[in-house]
Amino acid sequence: MPVGERDLKELDKRYIWHPFTQMREWLEGEPIVIERGEGNYLFDTEGRRYLDGVSSIWCNIHGHRRKEIDSALREQLERVAHSTLLGLSNIPSIELAERLVSIAPEGLTKVFYSDNGSTAVEVAIKMAFHYWRHKGQRRDRFVAFTASYHGDTIGSVSVGGIELFHGIYRPLLFPVYRAHYPYCYRCHLDKTYPGCSLACLEEVEGLLSCHHREVAAVIIEPLFQGASGMIVSPPGFLRGVRELCSRYGVLLIADEVATAFGRTGRMFACDHEGVRPDFLCLAKGLTGGYLPLAATLTTEEVFNAFLGDYSEFKTFFHGHTYTGNPLGCAAALANLRIFEEERVLERLGEKVEAFERALGSLKDLPHVGDVRHIGLVAGIELVRDRATKEPYPLEEKMGFKVCNIARQRGLLLRPLGNVIVLMPPLSITEKEVVWMVETVREAIEETTNRSPRSWR
Questions:
Q1: Is the domain covering 32-62+346-455 a CATH 1.10.3720.10 domain?
Q2: Which of 284, 313, 372, 375 places its Cα 20 to 30 Å from the Cα of 192?
Q3: pLDDT digits (tens, 9 = 90+) for 281-334
Q4: Can you give the pTM of this predicted structure?
Q5: Is 70-341 in CATH node 1.10.1330.10?
Q6: Cα three-residue angle 319-320-325, rounded to 5 degrees
Q7: In angstroms, rounded to a whole number, what is the distance separating the alpha carbons of residues 55 and 412?
Q8: Closest by alpha carbon to 379, among 227, 243, 153?
Q9: If you write DSSP's letter for every residue of 386-398 in order, what string do you get?
C-alpha cells in the first residue's frame, strides 16, 4: 500500500529515530509531518500552514521552492547527479569554488568540500594539525571556547563545550584548552559589557602565552554562539582573538556554519570586523537550505604545506563520498546568484530594524531576562526570576512549552533550553517579522502565567 494511504504518523513512530529528541515523549505525542513548502512557510499533512521561524534549523535562506534553485537542480540533473572529486572534477564544483573565493575574506584561496557543518570543522581541525606536522612542529592542542558547538563528529565534539550534549562522550575526545566566550548576561568574570570581553580575551592570551608552541589553532563561532543560546559577543572580541592568534603564531578557525550567508547582516560574520581566518567553515545556508554541502576554505600557506612528491606522502588523506556533489554545488551557485541579483544584503536593513523594534517589546515581560540579537538572529532567554537571573530548571521545559504554543498559532520554532531562538529566512517580510515576534510574546505570556500544576 502506498505510504500516502497509510498513517504517516504511525509509520514515523515505528521506524524513525529523531535527532536531539527524547523519543519516549515523541512516541507519546502527536507529530507534525511536513508535506510541502512555499516561500517562508511550511505545510503539514493536515493542511496547516506554519511560518518557518528557524529556517528549518538555520539553513533556509530565500524561502522554500525558489524557482531559481529548483531550475538549477533540474538543469544539473539533465547532466549528472554525482561524480567523485577523487581524481576527477566537475563543472559546478569548479565554478562554486571560484565564486566562494571571490566573496570570502581576502587570502582564503583554496576550497575543500565536504557535506555538513561537522565535517567542515573536522576538515579544518585535521588540516591545522597536519599543517604543523609538515612544518616540523608537533602542535596537538586546540583552544576552544566554553559552551561552543561545532558539530557532532568526534573531532568537532572535542572542541565543542556544551556539557549536556558532549559530557557523556568525554572518554572518546581529545583534550583542548578552553577560554570563556563572553556571555555578558551571565559572565562570571565581569558583569560589565566591555569588561566581560576584555576578561575573556585575557584568558585567551594567557593560554596562548603559555601554550602557543603546542597549539595548532583557536576555533571560534564568530559574533555569536548558536547552539548555546545565541550568545552574541561584544564588538571587537572577534578582532581581538584574531590579533592574539597572529601575535602568537597560531592558526584561526572560523566556524561560520550558522553565522554565514547574511544571518548577521553581512555575507560572513568575519566581515563585520575585517577578520581573515586561516580556515573558514561553511555549510547550512550554502545551498540555500536545499541540499547537504559544506566547504572549508583556507590559505595558500596551508595548501602549500601539503605539496610534495608522491613518495613524501604529504597528501591530505581525507575525503567524503559526496565531496563536491554537482547537485549541491549547482544549488549553491543559484543561491549566491540570488544574493547578487536581488541585492539581498543591501535590502536587509529595514527588516533588521523592524526585527530590533519588535524584539524591544519583549524586554518588559517579567520572565524575559535577556534579548540578544544580531542581524536576523535572536535569542530570548527566559528566567524564573528576572531580578536574580534565576533560570528555569531545564526539567520544566519552559522553552519547549513556549514553542508549542507558538506552533499552535502557526509559527515553527525550536528552543535551546530556556532560550527561544528566532532565525527566519532572509526572505521574511517586515510584516511577518512583526507577527512572528508578537506571536512569541503571546506564547511567553501564556506559558509563564500558568502555574506549574496547570501543566500536569
A1: no
A2: 375
A3: 999 999 999 999 999 999 999 999 999 999 999 999 999 999 999 999 999 999
A4: 0.95
A5: no
A6: 120
A7: 9
A8: 227
A9: TTTTEEPPGGG-H
